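Q: What changes when fe (ii) ion is included in the input?
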Amino acid sequence: MTQDILFQNLLHATQTAYRANPETQAFAGFPSDIERQSVSSHHCNCSDVFQHDSKLASAKYADLQDAILAASDIVHWRETYKGTEISNDFMDRFGCYCIIGDDAPFMSEQIRLWMVYMPAHLYYPWHHHPAEEIYMVISGSAIFRRKGCPDEVLSEGQTSFHKSNQPHAMETRDDPILCLVAWRDSFQAPPELTENASLLTPTYT
Ligand SMILES: [Fe+2]
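A: The predicted holo structure follows.
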């Protein structure tokens, strides 16, 4: 398949899954101003980890998972936390690429959209950003932590909403997780690791 077909399949599957979920739809409508843009591929180790993860399986969103996987070799894998105190192990295994936004095959002024992948037994430390955010689980499961809220174990089809600058964290246990993640404002400020995160005691054991 050509790059353009892979990206158009990705956009179509993303739109179908996003529109089928009432919580993502309520967060922000799927953008009406999408434009195709060129993107140069950027490979990271996490892409290989993702592509070889045999435990990911989605009942509701199999087409989206397949489209995300199919585009893995031609996308720009992000290294959001490069140069921070985050571990090399996290950098090697945490996967994220943008579907709508910077370094992505599509652009919109209305929302940003990413895929986020974590293999089993990985901890994504507390972080925050000005943008309001929603995670929708495509497959797998993880513990979602939000400051001021009880921990939740979320799986396929479930969502987590993060308010502006509300610290949040994620942890996988025996299952990996694949998510669709949307921002609806404050696109220019990237995520930052949250200082004094040790004060944010997990409530899930
Ligand atoms: Fe976030």
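Observations recorded in class: DSSP finds five helices and eleven strands in the chain.
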